[in-house]
Amino acid sequence: MTRNQYELVIGNKNYSSWSLRPWLLMTRFAIPFDEFHVNLRGETRQEELDANSPSALVPALRHNDLTVWDSLAIIEYMADQHPELPIWPGEPQAKAIARSAASEMHSRFFNLRNEMPMDFARMISTDDISEGVEKDIRRIIAIWHLCRSQYGSGGEFLFGGFSAADAMYAPVTSRLRTYGVDLAQFGDDGCGADYVQAIFEMPEIALWGKASQTEIALETS
């Protein structure tokens, strides 16, 4: 029996970028939930995934008799369940762009995902960035610049205040930080670097990072 109405099934905080997205959104907007952890590197990983997620992947959200899987679907469900919260920008044009940006993050950037997997609490030096990863980074910077320049004047996030779009891009900021990517080399005028810093100044990201460090310590103990 859970204490809260929502239960979020997530993987390792140091490695699971998809888990970070709904976790960050729900934590930032103070939506109470219980966490159910699956160790994605444990011996019983597959059994736990099969038992707790219809897709056998994380994350998954349990709410009463319903299970919602996939990060973006969970975020959309939270927006439907909590219309009083600014999960998406309120202005229709801004909302459309936010959804476009979030969906592009959801469906693209495979080179970056594969060659720079999330390793949240570590710093990994790399000088060998492939053409595919460079293309992904340049596109991400362009998205950030568009959102910040046209819709971000009200705050430090993509659409001013924190939104679902930021939840979707937070794992990318961690990858860029982990692998020491100098965004200026990929066309950034400072907007992207400032955005990465804004994400990492969030107390919720600090909590996730602390848990990631604990996981690493347990791995090596």
Order of helices and strands: EHEHEEHHHHHHH
| Spatial order of strands in the largest sheet | 2-1-3-4
Q: What is the number of helices?
A: 9
Give the overall shape, derived from the CA principal axes. globular
Q: What's the rounded overall pLDDT mean? A: 96
Biggest sheet statistics: 4 strands, mixed
N-to-C span:
32 Å
- Structure class: alpha+beta
- Per CATH, the architecture of the largest domain is Up-down Bundle
Count of domain modules: 2
**Strand residues, percent:** 5-15%
User: Which class of the largest domain in CATH terms?
Assistant: Mainly Alpha
What is the alpha-carbon Rg in Å?
17 Å
Helix coverage percent: 40-55%
CATH topology of the largest domain: Glutathione S-transferase Yfyf (Class Pi), Chain A, domain 2
Number of strands: 4
**Parts with pLDDT < 50 across at least 5 consecutive residues:** none
Provide key terms for this protein.
four-stranded mixed sheet; 9 helices; 221 residues; Glutathione S-transferase Yfyf (Class Pi), Chain A, domain 2; 4 strands
State the gist of this model.
The chain is built from nine helices and four strands. It has helices spanning 17-28, 45-52, 71-81, 92-107, 110-115, 131-151, 164-178, 191-200, 203-220; strands at 6-10, 34-37, 60-63, 66-69.
